[in-house]
Amino acid sequence: MHAYRTHNCGELRASNVGETVRLSGWIHRKRDHGGVLFVDLRDNYGLTQIVCKAGSEPLRALEHLRAESVVTVTGTVVSRGPEARNPNLPTGEIEVPADTITVQSPAEELPLPVAGEADYPEDIRLRYRFLDLRRERLHANILLRSQVIASIRNRMVEAGFTEFQTPILTASSPEGARDYLVPSRVHPGKFYALPQAPQMFKQLIMVAGFDRYFQIAPCFRDEDARADRSPGEFYQLDFEMSYVTQEDVFQAIEPVLAGVFEEFAAGRSVTPAGSFPRIPYKEAMLKYGSDKPDLRNPIQVSDVSEHFRGSGFGLFARMVEAGNVVRAIPAPNTAGHSRKFFDDMNEWARSEGHAGLGYITQKGGELGGPIAKNHGEEATRKLVAELGLGPDDGIFFAAGKEAQAAKLAGLARTRVAEQLGLIDENRFEFCWIVDFPMFEYDEEAKKVDFSHNPFSMPQGELEALETKDPLDILAYQYDIVCNGVELSSGAIRNHLPEIMYKAFEIAGYPASEVENKFGGMLNAFKYGAPPHGGSAPGIDRIVMLLAGEPNIREVVLFPMNQRAEDLMMGAPSQVTAKQLRELHIRVVEPAGTAKRDPAEVIAPE
């Protein structure tokens, strides 16, 4: 018999009754019933109930052990009585009376419980992540992650993609976030950077003649944490294709994403491959107030600015005359809601830093609220009719500069739907956001700059760059969105040096700077580069959606906290004076911080 186990703790069934077995695992729970000790023994695969008879050696061995101690149990499988069976447990028809117990590793008092799903402070959970990972939900999430990655990898290979690994130590490049820098010991004063994404490498793979590339790529960005973004590192399904149009990219990746979601949807519906809606960026910002719309939400925003031009509602009339916009957000079937619902929405908007939300109420077609009163009944009914609203539908209004009004309208659209229970949690709704502007005006820098990805091909190519207002130029850029979560950005790439030089010139970058920062890729493009494009859906976000988790740390094995600290391993940490000397580094403390030991602050040699 094996030293530790003949079966795992999720394996035994009624067909195993009468077999002598050996199991190893953690003590999940103990229950004393009249001197008989019942122990739930747990491993990666499940639970098995162990029984220790009163006065037995196994009972004496187990009764003083704490939960999460590791033991090996040998015994003969017996059937549970009909009244003792547990239909919710795969092993619920059997139990194993213990003949012998070997204690492999006793546990000390736990800093957090493993059995049960009680909330615990995040710092405790992260400091003792190895214990947190034993908990059922988190353990299942990490196993789901592994299964999702395996499914993605298989589907990509079946679709004709080849997996390659790109460098981790590379050159610093402006990707939109701060780099993590790695000092070079053999090149004093010079640094590698961890890749924010394999962007340039995957394009060079296309230049090298490999037609369809992918990898489950680690990416490193020194940026703040968010609920849907881990600080430090994350993983993405990075892929690139040669000789493709934008639509070819969509047709290649939709079956992969739809297939993975269908496989792990657990009964939830998924937008079928080949039917992901294509929504232009400008339309998305108007209808949904966001470039990552949640299409489970049936509410659509409308521009009603012209309805208020010369209106009796003076506030909106003056704003429209000054060049501002007014956006309407329907609130379906709110006749049964009190005035407080509308006032609370207004207060919520103010708490978000906006001026507030105006509103019109309706109850059986009867109009209410100061906007309706001042705008006039005839004009208000015309507005209601144009929006296609029913007699019990209310309306909220977001007014201001276009960008501000769009943002508030988008937030209000989401909040109204959540308050009214309009979002179907049993659906995965995908869409593509397309036709992003190539450039935007940076109010802070007072200059035109790239709005999305500087390596994208402008629609109209060189002619558009030379003849059109930069702010009117669209790019072959696209985002894939699911349930209001942006999974990735992508683009058809700019593979022609003359177009790249011109695009960067418009954004204020001279040719010398472009060559300095992107010389490797530019040089490669001068030797015959195929048209190519791709994208990189986020693995962490995909698993987060499938697991139904609101926070990405719940699907990452060993995440950092919001301050980019690994509390379990104590990273980042100080290093020795010897290490600093080898790297030719001097540590300069920020002003106002406590001084370190002088021995740790070493001047370069």
Question: Could you walk me through the main structural features you see in this protein, from its secondary elements to its overall organization?
Answer:
This protein has 605 residues and is α+β, with helices and mostly antiparallel strands. Helix 14 (497-506) runs antiparallel to helix 15 (511-525). The chain has 17 helices and 25 strands.
Quick rundown:
By secondary structure, this protein is an alpha+beta fold.
Summarize the amount of helix as a percent range.
Answer: 25-40%
Spatial order of the strands forming the largest sheet? 7-10-11-25-24-23-20-13
The average pLDDT score comes to 94
Tell how many strands the DSSP assignment holds.
Answer: 25
Main sheet summary: 8 strands, mixed
Structure class: alpha+beta
Work out the strand percent.
15-25%
Distance between the termini: 62 Å
Shape category: globular
Rounded Rg: 30 Å
> What is the number of helices?
17
Low-pLDDT stretches are 597-605
Q: Can you tag this structure with a few keywords?
A:
605 residues, alpha+beta, eight-stranded mixed β-sheet, five-stranded mixed barrel, 29% helix, globular, disordered C terminus
Q: How are the SSEs placed, and which strands pair?
A:
Blueprint: E1 20-33, E2 36-43, E3 46-52, H1 57-62, E4 70-76, E5 78-79, E6 94-105, H2 122-127, H3 129-132, H4 136-158, E7 162-163, E8 180-183, E9 191-194, H5 199-207, E10 212-221, E11 232-242, H6 246-264, E12 269-270, E13 278-280, H7 281-287, E14 302-303, H8 314-321, E15 325-331, H9 339-351, E16 358-363, E17 366-368, H10 370-375, H11 377-386, E18 394-400, H12 402-420, E19 427-428, E20 430-434, E21 439-442, E22 447-450, H13 461-467, E23 477-482, E24 485-492, H14 497-506, H15 511-525, E25 532-535, H16 539-547, H17 577-583
Parallel strand pairs: 3-6, 7-10, 12-19, 13-20
Antiparallel strand pairs: 1-2, 1-4, 2-3, 4-6, 5-6, 8-9, 10-11, 11-25, 14-15, 15-18, 16-17, 16-18, 20-23, 21-22, 23-24, 24-25
